[in-house]
Amino acid sequence: MEELKQKISQEGKVLSESVLKVDSFLNHQIDPVLMQKIGEEFATRFTKAGITKVLTLESSGIAPAVMTALQLGVTTVIARKRKSLTLIDDLYSAEVHSFTKQETSEISISKDYITSKDNVLIIDDFLANGQAALGLMDIVKQSGAKVAGIGIVIEKGFQPGGNQLRERGIQVESLAIIESLNGGKVKFKEEVSI
Ligand code: G4P
């Protein structure tokens, strides 16, 4: 998605060879106009998939997930990472280990919001090692619903998550794939049109 790549080039800050800071429009401050376009793009890519729910993980996945759900005319379910006062029983849960942050969190959703009849699109802001996506897929599996695909705003193509998910036959749509962050520069993977 050209507009997203331009935004990353203009405002992204390379913090190391593996970490890109995009706080100005995605992780801290949100650009709602860009988010709306991101939602439209995901909705277009999954338009024929018969999506009934969009599932994301708090917190940075929420904005793109809500915009996508709006375009698809469905609701968004947010998997919680922290224990919630009201999210207390009848939960589907999974463990997610972050290699980037070196921490493990338990993610949960209420059984009320995804059922075996659902066809779920998973949306997240970053894809690195794929642990968050796998945890969300685990939750969908527990509910008996189907994973229709995964939409990612920024995939770090030099980390293994994206390819591992695609090798499992999952439709993974990433709006910008970063090939490398070496030398303080963002290099995007060229899109191959088929
Ligand atoms: P994985 O799920 O693909 O295995 O990713 P990983 O554990 O490496 O990432 C854990 C957290 O770090 C996620 O945020 C993810 O979005 C974020 N992250 C990973 N790589 C980058 C990066 O290069 N830049 C930025 N900005 N974030 C990155 P989180 O803990 O879920 O935080 P949030 O959603 O509350 O913002």
List the helices and strands and how they pair.
Layout lengths: L1 H10 L1 E2 L5 E2 L1 H5 L4 H14 L7 E5 L4 H11 L2 E5 L11 E8 L4 E8 L8 E9 L3 H13 L2 E11 L4 H7 L4 E9 L6 E2 L6
Parallel strand pairs: 3-4, 3-7, 7-8, 8-9
Antiparallel strand pairs: 1-2, 5-6, 9-10
Helix pairs in contact: 3-4
The structure holds guanosine-5',3'-tetraphosphate.
The site of guanosine-5',3'-tetraphosphate has 23 residues, from strand 2, strand 7 and helix 5.
Pathway: Purine metabolism; XMP biosynthesis via salvage pathway; XMP from xanthine: step 1/1
Pfam family, one: Pribosyltran
Protein name: Xanthine phosphoribosyltransferase
Your description of this structure?
The protein has 194 residues and is of the alpha/beta class. It has a single domain (2-188), classed as Rossmann fold (3-Layer(aba) Sandwich). Helices cover 31% and strands 31% of the residues. It is built from six helices and ten strands, in the order H-E-E-H-H-E-H-E-E-E-E-H-E-H-E-E. The chain has helices at residues 2-11, 23-27, 32-45, 62-72, 131-143, 161-167, and strands at residues 13-14, 20-21, 53-57, 75-79, 91-98, 103-110, 119-127, 146-156, 172-180, 187-188. The strands form three sheets. Strands 4-3-7-8-9-10 form a six-stranded mixed sheet, with helices on both faces. A hairpin with a 5-residue loop joins strand 1 and strand 2. Helix 3 packs across helix 4 (62-72). It is globular. Guanosine-5',3'-tetraphosphate (G4P) binds next to strand 2, strand 7 and helix 5. Its EC number is 2.4.2.22. Its main location: cytoplasm. Xanthine binds at residues 20, 27, 156. Keywords: Cytoplasm, Glycosyltransferase, Purine salvage, Transferase. Residues 48-157 form the Phosphoribosyltransferase domain.
